[in-house]
Amino acid sequence: MYLDSAATAQKPQIVLDALTDYYINQNANVHRGLYQLAFQATEDYEKIRQQVGEFVGVNADNIVFTRGTTEALNLVASSFGPLVVHPDSEILVTAAEHHSNFIPWQQLAKRTGAKFVVVPPDDQGIVTTDAIIDHVTAKTAIVAVAQVTNVTGHVVDVARIGQAVHAKGGYLVVDGAQAVAHMPVDMRQLGADFYAFSGHKIYGPTGIGALVGKKQLLQQMPPIAFGGEMIDMVTEAESTWAPSPLKFEAGTPNIAGVFGLSAAITYLTQSDAEAREQHERALLDQLRTGLQAIPGMTVYGDSEGVSVVSFNLAGVHPHDLATYLDEQSIAVRAGHHCAQPLMTQLNIPATVRASVGLYSNEDDVERLLSAVRAAGRYFNESE
Ligand code: PMP
Known about the structure:
- It catalyses: (sulfur carrier)-H + L-cysteine = (sulfur carrier)-SH + L-alanine.
- The protein is an alpha/beta fold.
- It contains 13 helices and 13 strands.
- It has a 7-stranded mixed sheet, sandwiched between helices. Strands 10-11-13-12 form a 4-stranded antiparallel sheet, with helices on one face. A two-stranded antiparallel ribbon has the order 8-9.
- Strand 10 and strand 11 (308-313) form a beta hairpin.
- The longest helix is centred in the N-terminal third of the chain and has 20 residues, at 36-55.
- The relative contact order is 0.16.
- The model has no long low-confidence stretch (mean pLDDT 97).
- The site of 4'-deoxy-4'-aminopyridoxal-5'-phosphate has 14 residues, from helix 3.
């Protein structure tokens, strides 16, 4: 039984079919060949860029295909970062960020001499929208924040943070890895300058994702990887670049992944967003309430969180609990969840984290709850 969709979602048949169909019937390199199969692959690849754009409320030329959220965030930090960050700037992140949205900014701060400001969490592991806004100053060049954090599932108000950051002349980068599968994302409402997400967390393949960026910013940014597909002209003396987004997609891209991502978006959007949200909300409520009733239980985050619930059982190491659950064929995640600064702030080594997807159901949650109850008895008796 799989309750680790926040790490990566299981793939529906439509995604598997899209990958197979691409390799059987459409396989050709894109933006290169002068033959029908290659024309078609290129046309479809670019149509999918438009579909991905529509999925998040932007145009095709706002979408850069990347390997996933991590690569997208690193691209912004490496390419855009130096354009706006100076030695007297501040770069603002929260202590609840995934390492993918923490380390690139920490390293950028080190390279530029900027101040790296980390907003601390409350004792539930939450960094609120207000706490983030309170730390924005006239020196803040970039705020990088997850719309939904992967440890507590807390959701921040991106639009409000964006207004505060823009009012002070800074830029907002949003890690959407845990958000896109669970809520409609419309860049026109969020107003973020950049937004990153991964295909594999929205039922698509691994190795594909997107950076969504404002066009005028993408145009100013230098490429950071060089090679085929991203050039305009190359001479011995100089090279010039293709327009954005192609200038950021050096080398043969993950074409099959793009086709799989298209199928994943089709899968996700063919059901009603509100019904999806209600289904997952009911499961997370059941999970949170059930866990809270277990003696010695600490549940992190707040009841409005999405995607995940993190918890710890007194006297039981999270890894032992996860191993016990694995023996009952229940897959949950235990560890620091690539969020070591948050674990340090909470003074814990790790948590157990259960997360739901569209295919999760009440029985899954009930089985987990009864296994956790049994684990509590088992570990306490064996003490
Ligand atoms: N940010 C958050 C909040 C995440 O949950 C994850 C994946 N665990 C990432 C970033 C990184 O995503 P990926 O590994 O797909 O690049």
